Amino acid sequence: xxxxxxxxxxxxxxxxxxxxxxxxxxxxxxxxxxxxxxxxxxxxxxxxxxxxxxxxxxxxxxxxxxxxxxxxxxxxxxxxxxxxxxxxxxxxxxxxxxxxxxxxxxxxxxxxxxxxxxxxxxxxxxxxxxxxxxxxxxxxxxxxxxxxxxxxxxxxxxxxxxxxxxxxxxxxxxxxxxxxxxxxxxxxxxxxxxxxxxxxxxxxxxxxxxxxxxxxxxxxxxxxxxxxxxxxxxxxxxxxxxxxxxxxxxxxxxxxxxxxxxxxxxxxxxxxxxxxxxxxxxxxxxxxxxxxxxxxxxxxx
Length: 301
Hints:
Blueprint: E1 9-11, H1 16-25, E2 30-32, E3 53-56, E4 66-68, E5 72-76, H2 81-88, H3 94-103, H4 106-109, H5 114-119, H6 127-133, E6 137-144, E7 147-154, E8 172-179, E9 185-191, E10 202-211, E11 214-224, E12 228-230, H7 233-240, H8 248-265, H9 271-294
Parallel strand pairs: 1-3, 2-3
Antiparallel strand pairs: 4-5, 5-8, 6-7, 6-8, 9-10, 10-11, 11-12
Pfam families: FAD_binding_5
Domain FAD-binding PCMH-type: 3-183
GO molecular function: FAD binding; oxidoreductase activity
């Protein structure tokens, strides 16, 4: 070991109760799921921090469980993105499947976990934004008064004012619930690399029901990896007032409203990010325009 570096202590709980005991003694521990985030960070391992503690979740059997009913699927936090594709590709929303397949090869998706994709402080994937569009919920375990508590929370409630996913101190995501969406218009696109060029990368996720010329319950989210997730219920509500197809003037008005919100939330988007965001919004509107003109509502997939 090099001078000045220390090898962290690795804890391997087998159950939630063991996890609670470890967190109680080491509240500042780092959580290790698939390792795709922590091992890409500079100085993450070995660590320059003295007495660094890591909790590895891979031995907790209940975090590997997958179950479904007629309305939703529930994934333990250690279920990998590749396993999600294999078990739910025929029933899960298309926008989610498109997001996973865009992340990378199976070398990555076989290691990356759904819990880790949500809980990492820096965005290495666009997955959380897509889960917000799908109104997914997460079970959060957290310490309070020396006891481990559990609470189901909508993904939107985990977003702070800066568009970052925020968990309570020593908090852990244990399960994620995703409803089987019946929305007939879903769109996902990512431009640039969240890993190698986060300053210029951006993604967009959209889901809604298009009936004739209006949208019902639309949701849209943009993810900027070096800033956060841009999501607003107010923007969703604006989409419900639109009548498709939009002309160029209506598109420009919508674009101006969305960028006013983006600029009020995030500072210093790169010029390329702004250009790419405009392009993604244009692609979504073009697809909605086309569907509103060519495909009867009862025939859309």
